[in-house]
Design brief:
Layout lengths: L6 H6 L9 H21 L2 H10 L4 H28 L4 H25 L1 H13 L8 H19 L5 H12 L6 H23 L2
Helix pairs in contact: 2-4, 2-5, 4-7, 5-7, 5-9
């Protein structure tokens, strides 16, 4: 039987309209996730007794862990929706839509890093300092989910992003007028994801 989504994840689905400013969407995410998780912790005798029995695992630890999980779950859900939108597109249309979605996602990730700076500075830092694997700073977590649930699936069926990008670069080198913003956005995406791969290799 499939597990039911938590109350926090369910609440996240009632987000502002997709045409809303991205900062508004992320602010809503932060407010809902934080308050939903804290409320769940404070009203759950099981969590409070667990925190006491663990000694070093305080209530704040449990809230941090749950918030991180909720945040990760939400990012996966959002990225998978974008991936489905791009799945059947190809060539320059795919490249343009990829760049558009990447730009929006990165602006959101920047807001997210600011909104969840407390989580970054405390729970995430402590977990990473203790050597926990697959725990990332908030902004890096957004990149990891983009790569895992969008970039890799798109590329699995062939170099669908690489081919139109190389065509665009060739056109520029031949003196043709190309969309510089598109070229810059896509190459920035590839560069960041490549750096992410390097970081993952050096930390394993």
């Amino acid at each position: 039987m499939a597990s039911q989504p938590s109350a926090t994840v369910a609440a996240l689905e009632n987000m502002p309209h997709h045409r809303a400013e991205f900062g508004e969407i992320w602010a809503y995410l932060a407010y809902t996730a934080i308050h939903g998780t804290v409320y769940a912790y404070c009203t759950s005798p099981r969590k409070q007794s667990t925190a006491r029995s663990l000694g070093t695992r305080t209530g704040a630890d449990l809230v941090g862990e749950e918030l991180y999980k909720e945040l990760s779950t939400y990012l996966i859900s959002r990225v998978e929706r974008i991936q489905r939108k791009l799945a059947h597109k190809g060539d320059i249309e795919l490249l343009r839509d990829y760049a558009y979605e990447w730009d929006r996602y990165m602006r959101g990730a920047a807001s997210l890093r600011s909104l969840f700076s407390h989580l970054d500075r405390h729970w995430i830092k402590r977990e990473r300092d203790e050597g926990k694997k697959n725990i990332y700073e908030v902004h890096t977590l957004a990149l990891v989910q983009w790569k895992t649930h969008l970039f890799v699936p798109i590329q699995e069926s062939g170099p669908r992003l690489i081919i139109p990008l190389l065509k665009l670069i060739a056109q520029e080198r031949n003196g043709e007028v190309v969309d510089q913003n598109l070229l810059r956005t896509v190459t920035d995406s590839f560069s960041r994801l490549r750096k992410l791969e390097v970081m993952e290799v050096t930390t394993t």
